[in-house]
Amino acid sequence: MPTLEFKGKEFVYNHHLTVPYRPLEAHPDKSIGSKSGNLIIQGDNLHALKALLPRFAGKVDCIFIDPPYNTGNEDWNYNDNVNSPMIEDWLGGNPVNKEDMLRHDKWCCLMYPRLKLLYELLSEDGSFWMTLDDNEIHRARMLMDEIFGDECFIASVVWQKRTSPEARLMLGAAHDYVLVYSKRPNGTELKKLSLSQEQVEQFANRDNDPRGVWVSTDMTAQGYRPNQMYKIKTPTRKSYSPPPGRCWSLIESEYLRLRDEGRIWFGVNGTARPRIKTYLDETEGVSAWTWWTNSEAGDNQESKKEVNRILGPETPFDYPKPVRLLSRILELAAKPNSLILDSFAGSATTAHAVLAQNAKDGGSRRFILVECEDYADQLTAERVRRVINGYEYQGTQKEELLREQITWSNFSRDKAHKKLLDQVESIENLESDRFDAIKKTVKDGELIITGETKVAEKVEGLGGDFTYCTLGDPLDLDKMLTGKSLPDYASIGAWLFHTATGEPLDLSSIKEKRSYLGESSAFHVWLIYEPKLEFLKSRDAALTLSFAEKIAKKTDKRHLVFAPARFVPNKMLLPLGVEYAPLPFALYRFEKG
Q1: CATH hierarchy code of domain 9-16+24-188+288-391
Q2: Domain limits of the chain?
Q3: pLDDT digit string (tens) for 564-587?
Q4: Residues 261-315: tens digit of each pLDDT
Q5: HEC string of 286-321?
Q6: pTM (two decimals)
Q7: Selection from 152, 67, 149, 47 nearest residue 111 by Cα
Q8: CA-based nearest residue to 216, from 260, 258, 253
Q9: Which residues does 165 contact at the CB level (< 8 Å), separation at least 6?
């Protein structure tokens, strides 16, 4: 399979493996409850993704990311601490802009390790969704084919992001892409979309069928199949055969069954070519296709209004994604109890869509957001707080008062010119008491007069909760040895469990007083540890024969024990099915009491 080569690839190829583990530190004062398990993490998303692995590897059902498009106008920064003089030199070249001749290489170096960690977090039947435009879509496709596998490509959706032409371009860009991949070939089954109101209105009951309203669908299929080539007679004895190059979509026995059940439609007079009746009550939805219009999935103008409505107009988000776009992705890719991850969270549209969907159908979907910028608390998390609790909205309500086509005759003839001006003046005089302002604009050859009123209202909250986290200090061997940095039991336990087993740890399985972490597919895993240097230097921190004999009574799996030291030789542990793994205390010295 062809692969994409770019400057720095050899240095970032395994960079995700060298990223230090940094435990998550919760901030209750910035959180709203913690019951559901929703997380908002402030910090470098590469480090945050590494921090999520011990708990969520292989558990994320839907990943959505909206990374830098690398248009040259965004001024994003490349900050990864890669051990390479060339890449270290890049750190002094921030921000990355249009004048940077290596901006595409830098973008690939940014994305490569993050995509590798996202792949590890995605569940076996999960799906991955990424928005991009023409600047990087072709390179992203090659990166994804290399990391996920080209056989895991599902679709490249075209999303209509705007409706008005972009005059500064030779051909105005009206769309973005949504790149969709699965974890394994044919591993993802996307759901059907709910019928729109317009589609529902197509159903009718023209023959008073007791099964309810229905629509008729074609009963032919492309190609030739001998057992689907037969003549059909209508109730009026008119005979039909399949059209040239096609056959019936049903074998004859199945057709006869549906006909006898009244599920075949021959038209009002019983003379038309047969069609199958599809009932609204039996319709699960419609399959999505790869062209998403703004009427279905929103657009940039809609999303900007959403953000301004909640956070006010002074935000750094030029092109946030609309809630309707994320809602459509969730409808296709997420179950009512799914876990959704967004590691380029920005304006927090993903969390908003998850909360809205839960409020709509009573689901228990969870989200994890990661945002590296300083506005993670004041904007990203703040939007989620307001969506959960409700917020005061101050905005402008508009009412169109006049829309008049402007032609040459409007202004070339004095009478017509004066009449139009008099009409505008009359509207201003008559309507000024009803509105705070009367605005006049000319757009696309039309004069538009709009009355504007300032409004204030309370938007009800959707409910929900989240825990706000930052990244703690990396687990550092030297600091651990001196007692300067000792992580809590759950943090080091989750890291050790995942490192040893390659599986995530369910934190609810931890029994700290019994030194038990949890169960993997091959082991019961134990950790003798307290975040106190005195304990780690005491006899109580060592694996003993009595401890090994006690846990060995559970014989369904082998036992893996992490401890700073052991007072029992391996030859006595092996018959018990117990394996010892030393904690990273190479300079540990036992202090005799």
Answers
A1: 3.40.50.150
A2: 9-16+24-188+288-391, 197-282, 394-457, 473-582
A3: 889 999 899 999 999 998 886 433
A4: 999 999 999 999 999 999 999 988 899 999 999 989 999 999 999 999 999 888 8
A5: ECCCCEECHHHHCCHHHHHHHHHHHHCCCCCCCCCC
A6: 0.80
A7: 67
A8: 258
A9: 172, 174
